[in-house]
Amino acid sequence: MHFTxxxxxxxxxxxxxxxxxxxVLRNRKLVQEGKIIKRQGSFWESAELFITxxxxxxxxxxxxxxxxxxxxxxxxxxxxxxxxVFRSSHAWNAALEYKGSNNGIHYYEFSFPAYRTxxxxxxxxxxxxxxxxxxxxxxxxxDPRTRVENHRLQFKSKF
Amino acid sequence: MAENIIIIxxxxxxxxxLTLISFGIHxxxxxxxDSIRNSIVEKQEKRNPPxxxxxxxxxxxxxxxxxxxxxxxxxxxxxxxxxxxxxPYQNNTYR
Lengths: 159, 95
Hints:
The complex is a heterodimer.
Chain A: H1 3-33, E1 46-52, H2 56-65, E2 73-76, E3 83-88, E4 92-102, E5 105-115, E6 117-118, E7 121-122, H3 125-142, E8 147-152
Antiparallel strand pairs in A: 1-5, 1-8, 2-3, 3-4, 4-5, 6-7
Chain B: H1 2-47, E1 52-54, H2 55-60, H3 68-71, H4 83-86
């Protein structure tokens, strides 16, 4: 092989290592700031069902006060709708759906219905984690006895 | 001249057809992997139905969260703050 080829290979290996280190450091910082919690791999493929005493109005009010600047998100909710859709400029959407209530217990489902991937992984899973953590903290702030259930979602790839 | 035009047209058509075929194959493979993955997930959910957990526990007892000693490596070590660490010559019987 030519000398230049070796240099190109070495530079790409170094760049790859630097990218991994930067990612790990950024994740560690977010964990220490309490903006994310460590989760199982592919957490974006699961929906979280929240079982809580928090009413939908309370949740909406609390979410509107939540700081979501790290996710670059715009929240959309039309009055009378049971959905809140969060559109992020990091190529993912999240949705919180109010599933109804039973004897004063309310049910909500949070999931990522659409996201773009590179090699099967979303572009910025850390921002998805920030979003999910913010939603969990919102429910905890309203009702500390909130319970949660994880469901893996069926999915369909698009091109 | 006419032959060159024919060759160019054939080349363009070949490229387009090959692109369409590769796109179709890619789509078929993705559909296949999606359906395999979905059926595995369905079976797993049936075998191990999801359990409810306290949301607060996810923050307090998160097995994936950093443990305290990782942030403060010398905290809670049994050999910390022993007298000889503060003054190595204290209680030294050889002096």
